[in-house]
Design goal:
Chain B: Keywords: Methylation, Nucleus, Phosphoprotein, Repeat, WD repeat. Chain B: It is found in: Nucleus, Nucleolus. Chain B: It holds the Pfam family WD40. The complex is a heterodimer of chains A (349) and B (407). With 349 residues, chain A is α/β, with parallel strands linked by helices. Chain A is 28% helix and 24% strand. Chain A is built from 9 helices and 10 strands. In chain A, strands 1, 2, 3, 4, 5, 6, 7, 8, 9 and 10 form a 10-stranded mixed sheet that branches. In chain A, a hairpin with an 8-residue loop joins strand 9 and strand 10. Chain A is elongated, with a radius of gyration of 32 Å. The two termini of chain A are 62 Å apart. Chain B is mainly β. Chain B has one domain: Methylamine Dehydrogenase, Chain H (7 Propeller), CATH 2.130.10. Chain B contains 2 helices and 28 strands. A 4-stranded antiparallel sheet of chain B has the order 3-2-1-28, with no helix packed on it. In chain B, strands 4-5-6-7 form a 4-stranded antiparallel sheet, with no helix packed on it. Chain B starts with 31 loop residues before the first strand and ends in a 12-residue tail after the last helix. The chains are: A alpha/beta (349), B mainly beta (407). At the A-B interface, helix 4 and strand 10 of A face loops of B.
Chain lengths: 349, 407
């Protein structure tokens, strides 16, 4: 057996190292298997030359063993340090220093100069007179056209139907191989305010083009993690016809504001609170999570929510000024991975 | 969710924007003037790292006055002419930092596509193709030319100010002489030959530049081509054609040296193209949106670019190539003017306010001792100052606003 075989020369190393820690006074290196310290001697504490690291042991089994032992030691030390800290905190009681806040990527986010200051007049004017102003001034009410890329498969079709139950006043049309640039003037003449195109690839929806219609911006998103209603666990009944409330989380930068306003202009301006439905667009680390819930206040502080409706994740790829024209349109923001994704702590939305 | 604010000083220094306040004395030292879609003219000082907004007397931004064209009114760069979307041309003085006058230039439809000043007259060209020459103090134009529909750009030759060039979508490059009285251009470009499928190549001239010291004109098109025309040669077709990228080229500028041009497209890609060989020299990165304005300094390799992503960037073209300044300016930027002066860094320091003169009140303050709790300290301090302080206090007794502090 390997173990018994090692008792001859190397075994005492292991035995020796088992009993003593590594930080012993250096002695003759017994790792080379020198037969100097022979079996009849007392197993001496194994000593290592300074600057020795476990990775220098060539024998995999021994190396693994040493590593496991080192790890256990580290864990013990860490646990001991934690216990000590906890005891100190309890001893100090109220005078204990506040707990240090753990670093997260959101905490460490690189400061973005485009983050909108709520008191900023220029940005407020810019937003008050942009393409969505007519929706927020209640001059137009949204009417959405939902369509897909050509020849959609079952999953995409079902997703579009569910999306149209979630967004009030929306209509699903089959795309009969028509060019978007031809569809758009027809939509404008029929008073549609927004166009949603779900792009499909290999039977799953993977892209979303959202175009605000009279001359508004067009946003192109990559869609992932699409879950239809039947795939959602513990879901409620079908969404009703009431207009939902809209929650937009964490759209802080100027670009985020534009996208947030774009999402908000999909829904009617006055939500019907009787329906108790809420659509949430939550932005975190440049990914936008869409969820649709029904809520119920059980008491003043407790609320129960039920997830209805589809759920999906979006990532913005480009925002183009003007209606859909990917070739000749002017882009307000284009995602360039090699230039913009260099830092893990920098986000744009 | 803003984490700790870090300012890497080399690239993005903290920019202060005293919005609305007119910094009259320092307006002349601004390096870049940018016009935005909200009608605000912004002056940016790169050395002091400040960006200032200038609006007309009303002080409110207004989208009807969206700035569509900017040009210097004179070679000394003391006045700027601003063409707005409501067909007014305003003049702004950089010395004083305020708007001087505005005039309305009706005729034709669309926004201004070119502004120029020649011989005391203002030359304007609008999108529908009406080019008019307006004298200084009259509201009637003295000359009118019809350039053709859908004009994208009109540019004046800096060496010969009576020559202008116009071009647009399906409107080929035409060069006009304003001194003559004819309604025909002196040069009309011809379209290139049909392509390899024998289809007509569409025309879409987006920006025009005159090459200095020669009779050549460079244009960039919406079909990602850069073309050079030579007026001296009998050939009306372009002499050189180079392509870059797959997106329409929106703006173009000449580099110092005259060998190359820098173009920007709707995806925010900037490229320097050598026009003698027709090849790409380098690309500059950083922009995220469509490039609307580009200008290079006449002698130094400094390039200013602005676009729809609301940021003004200043790049350095060589030794070392890269981004130097980046300023976030909150509104979509339409056009810019880079000051061509050479003393970029040297800016005379404003005379520091002289040491305030010693007035009698100051002496009174100096004589009053600080209130100290220990009596001994007070007595020590009082001894040397009692006499002069006392006298002063008597003279100012009626005026001293505060009760005497020492007992």
């Amino acid at each position: 057996m390997a173990r018994s075989g090692e008792t001859g020369v190397g075994g005492e190393d292991r035995r020796g190292t088992k009993r003593k820690s590594l930080a012993d006074a250096p002695r003759e290196d017994s790792e080379d298997g020198a037969a100097g310290s022979g079996a009849p001697e007392q197993p001496r504490p194994a000593a290592f030359p300074p600057g020795f690291s476990i990775s220098e042991i060539k024998n995999k089994q021994r190396r693994h063993f040493m590593f496991v032992r080192w790890k256990q030691q580290q864990r013990k030390e860490k646990l001991a340090a934690k216990k000590k800290l906890k005891k100190e905190r309890e001893a100090l009681g109220d005078k204990a220093p506040p707990k240090p806040v753990p670093k997260t990527i959101e905490n460490q986010r690189v400061y973005d100069e485009t983050i909108v200051d709520p008191n900023d007049e220029e940005v407020a004017y810019d937003e008050a007179t942009d393409e969505f102003a007519s929706h927020f001034n209640r001059q137009t009410s949204p009417k959405i056209l939902i369509t897909t890329s050509d020849r959609p498969r079952g999953r995409t079709v079902r997703f579009c139907e569910q999306l149209s139950t979630v967004i009030p006043n929306s209509h699903v049309y089959y795309r009969r191989g028509l060019a978007l640039k031809r569809i758009i003037p027809q939509c404008i003449s029929r008073d549609f305010t927004d166009l949603i195109v779900i792009n499909e690839d290999r039977k799953i929806p993977n892209g979303l083009v959202l175009s605000h219609l009279p001359h508004g911006p067009t946003a192109h998103f990559r869609m992932s993690s699409v879950r239809l209603r039947k795939e959602i666990k513990r879901k409620g009944k079908e969404p009703t016809q009431h207009s939902p409330e809209v929650i937009l989380n964490n759209f802080t930068t100027r670009l985020g504001h534009s996208i947030g306003r774009m999402f908000a202009s999909l829904f009617p301006h006055d939500p019907q609170f009787i329906g108790r439905q809420v659509a949430t667009f939550h932005n975190q680390r440049d990914y936008i999570f869409f969820r649709f819930h029904r809520y119920l206040f059980k008491s003043e502080k407790k609320v129960g929510i039920q997830e209805l409706g589809p759920r999906f994740t979006l990532k913005l790829r480009s925002l183009q000024k003007g209606t859909f024209d990917s070739k000749y349109g002017e882009y307000e923001w284009v995602h360039k991975p090699r230039e913009m994704d260099t830092s893990r702590r920098k986000f744009h939305l | 969710m803003v984490g700790k604010q870090t300012f890497p000083y080399s690239l993005t220094p903290p920019w202060k924007s005293p919005g609305g306040s007119i910094m009259a004395a320092s307006a002349r030292w601004n390096h870049v003037w940018v016009g935005s879609e909200t009608g605000i003219l912004k002056g940016v000082n790169l050395v002091r790292k400040q960006a200032v907004n200038f609006t007309e007397a009303a002080g409110r931004p207004s989208r009807e006055e969206e700035v569509s064209a900017l040009c210097w009114a004179d070679a000394a760069e003391s006045q700027i002419l601003i063409g707005c979307a409501n067909r007014t041309v305003k003049s702004f003085s950089t010395e004083e930092g305020k708007f001087l006058k505005s005039r309305c230039c009706p005729g034709g439809e669309g926004t201004f596509r070119g502004l120029a000043k020649h011989d005391g007259c203002l030359i304007t060209c609008v999108e529908s193709g009406i080019l008019r020459v307006w004298p200084e103090d009259s509201s009637e134009h003295i000359k009118e030319l019809s350039v053709g529909p859908s004009v994208c750009k009109m540019r004046q030759d800096p060496d010969r100010p009576h020559i202008v060039a116009t071009g647009g979508k399906e409107n080929s490059l035409k060069v006009w002489d304003l001194q003559g009285s004819s309604q025909e251009p002196i040069f009309r470009a011809k379209n290139v030959r049909n392509d390899w499928l024998n289809l007509r190549v569409p025309i879409w001239d987006q920006d025009i530049q005159f090459l200095p010291d020669s009779q050549k004109i460079v244009t960039c098109t919406g079909h990602h081509q850069v073309r050079v025309y030579d007026l001296a040669s009998p050939q009306r077709r372009p002499v050189l054609e180079a392509t870059y990228g797959e997106y329409p080229l929106m703006a173009m500028t000449l580099t110092p040296g005259g060998n190359s041009v820098v173009v920007g497209n709707t995806h925010g890609q900037l490229a320097e193209i050598d026009i003698r060989q027709g090849r790409l020299v380098c690309c500059l990165k950083g922009l995220a949106g469509s490039v609307r304005g580009l200008q290079c300094h006449p002698t130094q390799p400094i390039l200013a670019s602005c676009g729809l992503d609301r940021v003004l960037r200043v790049h350095r073209l060589r030794e070392p190539r890269g981004l130097e300044h980046k300023v976030y300016l909150k509104s979509r930027l339409n056009c810019l003017l880079l000051s061509g002066r050479d003393n970029w860094e040297d800016e005379p320091q404003e005379p520091a306010p002289g040491p305030p003169e010693e007035t009698e009140t100051d002496e009174l303050w100096a004589s009053l001792e600080p209130v100290v709790s220990a009596a001994g300290a007070k007595r020590k301090q009082r001894a040397p100052e009692a006499q002069p302080g006392g006298k002063k206090r008597q003279s100012l007794g009626a005026q001293a606003p505060l009760p005497p502090l020492c007992k």
